[in-house]
Write a structure and sequence with these properties.
The chain has 115 residues and is an alpha/beta fold. It has one domain: Transcription Regulator spoIIAA (2-Layer Sandwich), CATH 3.30.750.24. It is 41% helix and 31% strand. The protein contains 4 helices and 5 strands. A 5-stranded mixed beta sheet has the order 1-2-3-4-5, with helices on both faces. Strand 4, helix 3 and strand 5 form a beta-alpha-beta unit. The longest helix is centred in the middle third of the chain and has 16 residues.
Length: 115
């Protein structure tokens, strides 16, 4: 798993590559989200377009990250999950918990309209 962060305006974009699964970087995502929130970031976009697999552990990390974000009054959204990841989110009934965008431009517009 490879994770990089970048900023577009007041939105932090977290680019994932690889898998979010048990043993692949346990607790990396929640730790990163907490760090971003503690730095004062309140708009976080998780780019899942290069994430090819997520398991129950990874789903738990996503949900934990969403809950932490809400606790801080922040907004955490998903960008373009691949079909396999989207299907897993749908099957576990987690997809409705997240705002999901197909393009980065749409996501940035979505954050802007929230301000």
């Amino acid at each position: 798993m490879n994770i990089e962060t970048r900023k577009k305006g007041d939105v932090v974009i977290v680019d994932f590559q690889g898998r979010l699964a048990i043993g692949v970087g346990d607790e990396v995502l929640p730790a990163l989200i907490e760090q971003l929130l503690s730095e004062g970031n309140r708009k976080i976009l998780l780019n899942l377009s290069d994430m090819d697999y997520i398991d129950s552990n990874g789903l738990g990390e996503l949900v934990q990250s969403l809950k932490t974000s809400k606790r801080f009054g922040a907004s955490l959204r998903l960008l373009k999950p691949q079909d396999r990841v989207r299907k897993t989110l749908r099957l576990t009934n987690l997809l409705p918990m997240f705002s999901v965008y197909e393009t980065e431009a749409d996501a940035l517009k979505g954050f802007a309209s929230e301000a």
